[in-house]
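User: I've been going back and forth on whether these two constructs are worth ordering. Before I decide, could you fold them both?

Assistant: Sure. I'll take them in the order you sent them. The first construct and its structure tokens:
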Amino acid sequence: MELKFILESILFSAQQPLSPKELKDLFAGAVEHSEDSAIKLLKKTSLDAISAALEDLARDHEQAQRSYRLVCVAGSWQFVSQPEFAPWIKALVGHKSRPPRLSQPALETLAIIAYRQPITRAEIEQVRGVAVDGVMQTLLERSLVTQLGRAEVIGRPITYGTTDAFLEYFGIKNLDDLPAADELRRIVVQKPESLLTVDPGLATAPPEQLTMQDGGNGQAAAPQNPTEAGSSSVEAEPVSTNRLAHAKAKPENS
């Protein structure tokens, strides 16, 4: 028996897409159901041979122009009907509701992740120029993106990438099938610099940039040199807000 016809019979009967690895495992399991020596030989079929046979079978069905075709989505193979026959199939099995379409911001964010993964949230925001908190939550909830790990930079932010559900959503075999987007890949993203500390709640800017602003917290900045404060003494008693307002309104003595 020819390999591609065996694969065709398996995929025709399968209830879900199957990867070449899963098909190879089925070849090994078939030995338990037959004493035929030819079936035992097929147990040693390589993954490359299975993949080549699947590609050949897909071309056969494409050239035959049947109502269905063999496709590979997210690394797994399955038979699917041609889109033009959808009305009759929906009448037979009913219409399966799909999640709402992705918004334009979600699609833009997803494209950045797909072409530049692994990528951190801060890097995504650098490319888009806006915050992506809400959009990222939507993509994570729909399992279109996932956490891949942590970047080897200060703070070790989480990195994100696409999932198999992303490939299934767009009906592509792998990321190599994405349209060319060289311009998106060429956008320069500034990597985080080495900071003073990464502990939460502590300053992360260099010390020389940490200056107290006058009036920032309702108090005046302390003078760096005692002589700059003038010859008058500083009253130690705390002054209430009303007294400060009254003093401000009182004209100074000449």
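The second construct, handled the same way:
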Amino acid sequence: MDRKGAVRELISRGEIPTPELIDRMVSGRGGGKPEERGAENKRGEERIGVKVLSPEKKERLSAQDFTAYYNNKYEGLREILSSKISAISINKATETFGEVGVIGMVREKTPTGYIIEDTTGSIELVQKGSNMVTGDVIGVSGQVKENRLFGNGVVLPDVSLTQKYGTVKGVRITLSRKPPKKREEGTLHFHAEGNGGLPNGSRIEISGGGKVRILFYSPLGKAGPQECTECLKKRHLTISNKEIISPKDDFIIREVPDMLWSNSDNRFVESYKGVLIISPGSETVSVDLGTRRVY
């Protein structure tokens, strides 16, 4: 069996296709029974499906790749913002009298606001009271005077209050930083680090009479609930330039997850507009996907 066949077989069983299990399948040693890995692939007659999608990675990035990354980031977030603000390009805004709306990426901070840019040009935004950083993509409306945009407020991509969140009845998962010493029978387990750990930005989809989407986030430093909430507001995971791994920006939160799992140092459980924000810290957290209760 080749590696692609091993992945398909493991997913059909309801198992997570980790590198360790794939190697076992390819070598002919098998992946073990699902229940031995803490995962039931059936509930009655209903199959439990598990998909794990990791961000694309390119071994070596050129200067053109970094430029493409930021262009793709801008375009992806601009598409989301377009449903929240009526906007024109920055070069047209500089020639317009009256109220205008634009979508731009923050290039730098100024004493009175920011320099924002799109693919057509840049403009100084006069806007106080906003806490934006370089690389954020925002919408803003206001009036242009003397080649400066005097903003009336910043619009973020943000998640919607009308979003419906998924459940899968009768399924429980556990989340931890390290692989568990003992697995609970009938429970799907995911861990952040070590053999079978997840790359930053991985997406987990669990289905079976419903669907639950989990977004995995491995933040820099000691990120707490506020930093995780900011990611949801900005619809983008906060990463450093060293963490850019592809011209394609897979860190945009295009599909709003049901759960944001953060590999932070401290344990916390929060909710933002219905999205569960969970950080196990050094502990193991259990989640009932039917009731969304966290233990």
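Notes on the second construct follow. The helical segments are 3-13, 19-26, 63-81, 90-93, 225-234. The chain has three domains: 1-32, 36-58+162-294, 85-155.
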